[in-house]
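Database export, one record per block. Field names are fixed; values are copied verbatim from the stored entry.
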Amino acid sequence: MAFSLSFVAGGIILGYMLNGVEHLPGKTLNASLIEGVVGTLWEGRAKSLIVAFVLVTEATLLFVAAQTGFLGGPQVLSSMAVDSYMPHRFAHLSDRLVTKYGVYFMGIMAIVMLYITGGSVKYLVIMYSINVFLTFTVDQFGMCVHWLRSRRWEQEWKFGLGMNGIGFLLTASILSATVLIKFPEGGWLTLLITGAFIVLSFLIRRHYRNVEGYMRRLDELLTGLPPVTVPSEQEPVPRKDSPTAAIMVSGYNGMGMHVFFSVIRSFPGMFRNFVFLSAGVIDSSTFKGVEEIENLGEDLKNQLMQYVEFAKGHGYYAEARSEVGTDVITVVDHLAPEIAKDFPNITFFAGQLVFEEETFINRVLHNQTAFLAQRKLVFHGLPMIVMPVRVL
């Protein structure tokens, strides 16, 4: 790759020098070079057609190359979402198994960048060059850290560290020189936008860590309750026409148990049947093949059985329903009517995190699955109650 890039770039520069190509207003250097070369062979209409064909071909190649951003960008955003540096929905896959929110984000940001820069090639090229070498520098530095950490079991760690260390020094020096030279010409704008994105990522991570800390305490408090075993001959039997509570859960956790206890406390003696339903969402962290998807479904069933055993141990009839899909609402829309056929007198419940101060950031970082499911079930004629779970 290095040889081919050097060969092509060097050949183009040599072509500029041999043909005395200079900047002309309204023309790229490549356009001037092609006109000069073609002009020695053809004139008139033939020259114009050949020049136009070459420039259109070049534009097509650049257009195809630009798509790499829409291929790699959503994957990077997805990895960041898995690590909680971006909203978790960026890791979700669409029906076509692509990170659709990442694609939307890349498209919107491309439009925003065009608006901010006014489509100026001057600013866009500076923005591209600084961010490209910033990426290269971070990559090389990360590999250096990798080799240092794995030096105890990697025999060739010195060679790897040397290669990536040289790469880091080269890319870091080019990055520094580019920033210093281009700073007054628009480099400051690139640093401002990129820096703001980095700061935003760390703020998102801090928010998720705070919420995860609360949820962890809730898990320790509620999922650590000792199970109660009931002899098989004393297990409650289902009463299909009795009031039934269907609780939507995301797995065996404190939030699901919180909703279960809230239903019992809010409606004492009303529900004797409980159905725990859950959707196993295929996201970028679990989509590693058919086997991983099967493992996801099996793990989800095992988690739901813990709810079932706990409820049965306290004298309630309980069962579990689950399905693996790419969207929670789609799965709920499929499971809910089936459950309602088996238990006609059913009410659905789901938990929703409630913050002391509801802000736009909270709504973006924490999806409104419960309310979306409630809106969906209304059109099936199925009642649903959203139980608030306070975040302290």
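Remark 1: The CA atoms of residues 207 and 365 lie 9 Å apart.
Remark 2: The first strand starts at residue 244 and ends at 248.
End of record.
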